What we know:
disordered C terminus
Amino acid sequence: MFSSHFWKRPIPDSLTAMVKSLWRDRNDQLDPETDYVEIVQNLSLYEFTWDITQSLSFALFRTYAVPSIGRLLDETGQFTEACQKRYDDTALLLEAPFVHGFDSEQGRTALRRINQMHKMYDISNDDLRYVLATFVVVPKRWLDDYGWRPLSETELRACVNYYRDLGRHMNIKEIPETYDGFMHLMDDYERAHFAFDAGGRRVADATLGLMCTFYPAPVRKPVEVFSRALMDEPLLQAFRYDAPHPAIVRLSRGAMRLRARLLRHTPSNRTPTFTADLPRIKSYPGGYALAELGTFPSDRRATVGCPVAH
């Protein structure tokens, strides 16, 4: 069984000052072409834990607006019938490679499970490549809009290299080489494919409903409205969600920017925050085994194989 508490990462002596530039300075001393896993660790576990968790969740949420993705997820029943477990499993499996490295036992186990699940279904390389692009583009845009600082050029290049490596381990073909390549891929794919699908809407509703359960009952409706206020118009239209009143949109986005301004005056985190430690991860209070996460052939409803070799 795996617990995140085993990993106690020492802070280098040269970085012990409680200053806000701690991790940016550390990352900019590293090489994004070779040290990209460590840079992503620093960003995800220390610098932007909440922001990256939220932005990656939002990235996956966007993909449901592509009918071939949202419809398939609805047909599996995993998001509508076991949404909490699916959310937890996805987060834990995606975390393992950057915590432990792609070549570690844990990283290989997580990637094996991800590939085994994808192999159970008929998923195109284009859809897989689009999902990968959202992991690169959405967090960068989130931090531009709502982070206390944007990514540095070194950090952005490291994120590109990290997800290129993840894509290679998933045998995704024709992966972009640059951030601009990922950005154009995502934007073009959404313009071409965003459309309403009843199954995709059910998956979006279930996911949004799950997110609201992370907060006390009296504020769940405001949280749902707040979430829609952060969505762009093409996404709202694809799900046929009502856009909140413009005043609510301004208030919601203004609150996020106020949070960012306040965070600029707080010290850098020196203790890592792992996915398993987050209160919203509820499925495994006693720990978990990576090899047992996710869905298996007996759980699935679709039976066709994936054309992408794994």
